Amino acid sequence: MVNKTILGISGSPRKQSTEHVLREALNLMEERGCKTELFTVRGKNISPCRNCDYCIREKECILKDDMYELYPIFKDVQGIIIATPVYNGGVTAQIKAIMDRTRAAAAADIDFLKHKVGMAITVGGDRIGGQELAIQQIMTFFILNGAIPVSGGPFGSNLGANFWSHDTLKGVKEDEEGFRSLNKTIKRFHEFLEKYQ
Ligand SMILES: Cc1cc2nc3c(=O)[nH]c(=O)nc-3n(C[C@H](O)[C@H](O)[C@H](O)COP(=O)(O)O)c2cc1C
To answer: Which of 42, 119, 187, 191 is the most buried (most CB within 10 A)?
Structure first.
């Protein structure tokens, strides 16, 4: 039975490792009876926030770009998976722009993410390239906005799903440890969705 809808956001400008593992994550959620929706920044135009405060006054963003595809989706989902490549030990500029631009969503409805369940997936080219720092950025975004951040738990996943791509799609596909961390995180993500949504 389809009962929950999950939004997956890919923060990679390419159709490569991050999108691949996000699709795997969404498939795992579909196997658990969820409906899924994938939003990718690839080919999209999402400008950084200008802090013009138009959204505070008008309850919408002044920048009429592809972020407007994403704004309405937040309303209809119970869970959010943010997947990002690691760029300089953090999320990509595109993911950061999305996070910052949700200021307009919060201006319109301060509870736009409240009680929704969130998890993170990161993909680094290096084995220890800042994956957990990038996850922390995503978890902070969830906490700030009242979402429930879910980790994979101790003994194998810890903060969430972390992948080592060796900068190739083949590399990520062969990352058994990464998939172990993904499976553990998805299991808990689903448990939290069942309990809190
Ligand atoms: C601008 C830039 C910065 C990067 N910085 C890091 C980094 O700090 N740590 C890391 O492990 N990999 C880094 N990488 C490598 C990517 O994270 C890696 O290639 C990843 O697999 C890309 O994901 P994608 O295949 O989904 O695009 C960087 C890549 C780019 C383009």
So the answer is: 119
| Pocket flag, ligand 1, residue 171 (CB < 6 Å) | no
pLDDT digits 0-9 by tens, 52-86: 999 999 999 999 999 999 999 999 999 999 999 99
Whole-angstrom distance, CA of residue 6 vs CA of residue 154? 24
- Alpha-carbon span 186 to 150, nearest angstrom: 9
Rounded to two decimals, what is the model's pTM? 0.98
Instruction: Report how far residue 162's alpha carbon sits from residue 121's, in angstroms, rounded to the nearest whole number.
Output: 6
For the chain, the structural domain boundaries read 18-196
Q: Does domain 18-196 have CATH number 3.40.50.360?
A: yes
157-184 pLDDT tens trace: 889 999 999 999 999 999 999 999 999 9
- Residues 42 and 132: their CA atoms lie apart, in Å, by 23
